[in-house]
C-alpha cells in the first residue's frame, strides 16, 4: 500500500467488505477506524468472571495435558547458545523423563541464528521450530534487514516465524505501512506459518488492540500474538479475549481458521487454565488445539509438570524434581 499505486486489486478469497479494505491505505484506514469500539468495562468483567471458574479433578488433568501440548517453549536471551538450545530441545521432546505419557510441547522458539541447532536437535520429534524475526523485540530496523532475518530463519528450517509489527507506524495511523510489512514477511516466510506479534502493552487500549488484530489478519497472519514478553504489561486475559474474538469473527466471516498466542507473564498452571477457559468460551472448543492456540512461555512448563504430578499422585512435586531450564 505504501509507495504503491493509489488503488490495488482487493485480496482474493475474502468477502466484499474485507476485500475492499485491502485495496489501498485509505480503504484500510476507513475499515479499521469504522470497527465498533470495545466495551472495556464489560470486557474486563467477563474476563474476571471466567477466570473464577473452577476446574478440578480429571478435568484439570486434561487441561494440564492440553496446555503442555500448546506450549511454545521459548528462550530469547542474549546469552542463548547452541548448548542451551539442545538442552531445551530435549525437554521439548520429553518434558518429564519420569513420565513418558506427558505430551510433547508444540514448538521450541529461538532466535534466527539458532534455528539450525533447534532443527537438528528436534528432527523427527514432531516438535516444531519457531523463530522470532523482524528486529525482535523492538521492530526497529529497515525492511531489508527484517526480511533478511526471516529468510535466515526459513532457510535454516523454521516451521514458524514470529514477527513484530512496527508499533510506531501503527500508533501514527500508518496502517498501510504496517500492512505492507506483514504482507512482505508473509511472502518471505512461506511455507512457514506466520505469527504476528502486536505488542499489545504498547498499543494504548483495547480499541487499538482490536484494530491491530484485524489489520494483521487482513495482511495474512496465521496467528495473532499478544506480546514479545519483553514489555510490561505482556499477555493479559482481557487482551487475549479481544484477540480470540477477532479470530472467531474472522472465521465466521471468511471460513478461514486463525490462531492466537498469548505470551509473557503466564507462569502458573492456574494462569494457563484460565486462558483455556477463555479459549473455550470466547472462541470455541475447536480452538483448543496447538494448531489454533499457543502459550508463549519459558517458566510455565515446569509448573504444569509439577501440578500434573500432584493431580496423579496427590502430593506436590518440588522444582528440584523437575528438570529446570538452563
TrEMBL record:
The keyword Iron-sulfur does not apply. GO terms for biological process: carbohydrate catabolic process; deoxyribonucleotide catabolic process. The keyword Nucleus does not apply. It is an enzyme of class 4 (lyase). Pfam families: DeoC (PF01791). Belongs to the DeoC/FbaB aldolase family. DeoC type 2 subfamily. This is Deoxyribose-phosphate aldolase. It comes from Actinopolyspora xinjiangensis. The lineage of its organism: Bacteria, Bacillati, Actinomycetota, Actinomycetes, Actinopolysporales.
Amino acid at each position: 500500500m505504501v509507495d504503491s499505486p493509489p488503488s490495488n486489486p482487493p485480496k482474493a478469497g475474502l468477502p466484499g467488505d474485507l476485500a475492499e479494505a485491502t485495496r489501498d491505505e485509505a480503504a484500510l484506514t476507513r475499515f479499521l477506524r469504522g470497527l465498533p469500539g470495545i466495551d472495556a468495562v464489560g470486557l474486563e468483567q467477563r474476563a474476571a468472571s471466567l477466570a473464577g471458574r473452577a476446574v478440578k479433578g480429571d478435568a484439570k488433568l486434561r487441561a494440564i495435558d492440553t496446555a503442555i501440548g500448546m506450549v511454545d517453549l521459548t528462550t530469547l536471551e542474549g546469552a542463548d547458545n547452541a548448548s542451551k538450545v539442545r538442552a531445551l530441545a530435549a525437554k521439548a521432546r520429553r518434558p518429564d523423563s519420569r513420565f513418558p505419557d506427558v505430551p510433547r510441547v508444540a514448538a521450541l522458539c529461538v532466535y534466527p541464528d539458532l534455528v539450525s541447532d533447534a532443527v537438528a536437535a528436534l528432527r523427527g520429534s514432531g516438535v516444531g521450530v519457531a523463530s522470532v524475526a523482524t528486529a525482535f523485540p523492538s521492530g526497529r530496523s529497515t525492511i531489508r534487514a527484517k526480511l533478511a532475518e526471516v529468510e535466515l530463519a526459513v532457510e535454516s528450517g523454521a516451521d514458524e516465524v514470529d514477527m513484530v509489527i512496527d508499533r510506531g507506524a501503527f500508533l501514527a495511523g500508518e496502517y498501510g505501512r504496517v500492512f505492507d510489512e506483514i504482507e512482505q514477511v508473509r511472502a518471505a516466510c512461506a511455507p512457514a506459518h506466520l505469527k504476528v506479534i502486536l505488542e499489545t502493552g504498547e498499543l494504548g487500549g483495547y480499541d487499538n488492540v482490536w484494530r491491530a488484530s484485524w489489520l494483521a489478519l487482513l495482511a495474512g497472519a496465521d496467528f495473532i500474538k499478544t506480546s514479545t514478553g519483553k514489555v510490561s504489561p505482556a499477555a493479559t486475559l482481557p487482551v487475549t479475549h479481544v484477540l480470540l474474538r477477532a479470530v472467531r469473527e474472522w472465521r465466521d466471516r471468511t471460513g478461514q481458521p486463525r490462531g492466537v498466542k498469548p505470551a509473557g507473564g503466564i507462569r502458573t498452571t492456574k494462569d494457563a487454565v484460565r486462558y483455556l477457559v477463555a479459549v473455550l468460551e470466547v472462541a470455541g472448543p475447536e480452538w483448543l488445539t496447538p494448531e489454533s492456540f499457543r502459550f508463549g512461555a519459558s517458566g510455565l512448563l515446569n509448573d504444569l509438570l509439577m501440578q500434573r504430578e500432584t493431580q496423579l499422585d496427590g502430593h506436590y512435586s518440588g522444582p528440584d524434581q523437575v528438570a529446570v531450564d538452563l
